[in-house]
Amino acid sequence: MNSILMLLPLLAFMAAMLALGVYVRRQSHAGGFLSGYFVGGQSLGAFVLAMTMVATYSSVSSFVGGPGMAYEIGFGWIYMAVIQTMTIFLVLGIFGKKIALLAHRINAVTIVDILRHRYQSDALAACAALAIVVFFAASMVAQFVGGAQLFAAVTGYRYELGLVLFGIVVVLYTSIGGFRAVALTDTCCAIVMMLGIVILFYYVLDAGGGLSSILNELRTTHPEMLTPTAAGRMPISLYISQWLLVGVLTIALPQSVVRGISYRSSRDMHRAMVIGTIVIAFMNIAVNLVGVLGRGVLGVPAKEIGGVDSVIPHLVPPAFLGFAIIGPLAASISTISGVLIVASSAVVKDVYLHHMKQRGQEVSDKTLRHLSMGVTAALGILVFILAIAPPSLIWLINMFAFGGLETAFFWVLVFGLFTKSATRTGALFSMAGGTLIYCGAMAAGFKPFGLHPIAIGITASLFLFLLGNLLEQRSGKNKA
User: Does residue 67 contact residue 287 with C-beta atoms inside 8 Å?
Assistant: First the structure.
């Protein structure tokens, strides 16, 4: 009976997400179906824009694995993670206005639209669409599995039940309502996440007798947790790797950059930069601080309570688990829906519609509507099937997907949007070659100087971009 009561808040939350998807589906969008379905009719206000970026960037690992690692390592983990507080400000500040102006001028709906127009290359567009689908699938599998495993650990129900529950809700509201449903549900998820963090922080402080008491306990029993290097457990190479992987390079993640197409006005974008930075700073620092302080409350190593993913469930009083679980599961749901709609747009808009346009065939709005919802649902179902037999090391899969997308898109977007000399050959070499080298380094476990393979991928993609540029420029001179 208690386990059923525990599920009620979560079930009510998910029912609200479905209802919101149905509501959005009935609204009309300016700019036609494609613009409405894939970028919300370019009508997002400041608060919704900020919240959808926060929710998409935050994942279940941000609320479970991250605080669990902070529980083991200490303040060094917070110092490493604090770089993430600037991501939304950087994404909108660097790419936001540039992307919006270009999207309006060429009537772009996706990032691939923009790359195809900038580089005049169907091969590059196809490569970009493939990278989005493959790496987003890996990211969604990680979120599905992480959310379902947390559901099972907290409620005592089977992993498969949690997976089915998430699968039905996320796939339905995303496929029915499109981007605007994703943005609005993301807003709800972000608010729930913040409330969950506040509740969790309160109970950790209460259980430990206050902040001063907990810090004194840590200073006495685990003084290394108060230092940046955590007695060697946080080497400089890890700081550099994480600052690249979840910090600076995230400005090129397609699921974040596409938000630059969706906002209503420059004023909304500027406000979203401030709101988003404040919110993600609060969430990122507070939730990891909960993990650090939790060590002073529970006292035992994470392995004695089931590992780092079990830390947060052990810090919440059983009577409040039903409410507390909504926060991290909302992070999982919002991330899945955010990447699912972008992956769907890559298939429908960037592959199918472009192919039909080249053949000179028109596609009706009715066909587009059915196809878009069908492809979104099909991709969601495919990822759901892959998650049935959960792979190990979920956080590694998520980081692999992050690194792959960053390697593929970072230099292509930076050079393409801010220089006139960037060529299609350079972009294609960078995206295809750099991504293959990154995947090879990941598979081989190659970590020069202890750095994550993202350092290899991003360096290789830069070198290949410059090489491709040089080859095409020389070829042009020879022809002249």
Answer: yes
- The stretch 58-74 carries a mean pLDDT of 81
Which of these, 74, 67, 78, lies nearest to 230 by C-alpha position?
74
pLDDT at 480: 47
225, 91 Cβ separation under 8 angstroms:
no
Residue 307 DSSP label: S
pLDDT digits 0-9 by tens, 230-267: 888 888 888 888 888 888 888 888 888 887 787 778 88
Model pLDDT, residue 353: 81
pTM of the model: 0.83
* Mean pLDDT computed over 400-428: 92
DSSP states of 447-471 as a string?
-GGG--THHHHHHHHHHHHHHHHHH
Q: Among candidates 432, 259, 435, 431, which has minimal Cα distance to 341? A: 259
Going by C-alpha positions, the residue among 130, 64, 157, 146 that lies closest to residue 387 is: 146
**97 vs 263: CA distance, rounded Å:** 10
Distance (Å, whole) CA 315 – CA 200:
8
Q: For the chain, give me the number of helices (H) and strands (E)?
A: 25, 0
Closest CA to 135 of 423, 400, 458, 455: 400
Please say if the pLDDT value at position 120 is more than 70: yes
Q: Quote the DSSP letter at residue 329.
A: H
pLDDT tens, residue by residue, 86-118: 888 888 888 888 888 888 888 887 888 899 999
Q: Give 381-430 as a DSSP string.
A: HHHHHHHHSPPS-HHHHHHHHHHHHHHHHHHHHHHHHH-S---HHHHHII
Query: Other C-beta atoms within 10 Å of 291: how many?
Result: 29
The span from the CA of 59 to the CA of 250, in Å, is 14
Q: How far apart are CA 99 and CA 206, in angstroms?
A: 47
- Is the torsion defined by CA of 437, 443, 444, 449 positive or negative? positive
Strand partners, 263: 44
- Token reading at 273: 């930069």
- For residue range 275-303, list pLDDT tens digits in order: 999 998 998 899 899 999 999 888 888 88
Q: Quote the CA–CA distance of 272 and 279 in Å, as a whole number.
A: 10
pLDDT band for position 415 (50/70/90)? very high
Region of 278 (left: φ > 0; alpha: ψ -120 to 50; beta: rest) is alpha
Encoding tokens for residue 320?
A: 């409040």
Instruction: Find all residues with CB under 8 Å of 225, minimum gap 6, and list them.
Output: 73, 74, 75, 76, 218, 292, 295
Neighbours of 210 (CB within 10 A): 10
Per residue in 458-469, pLDDT (tens digit) is 999 999 999 999
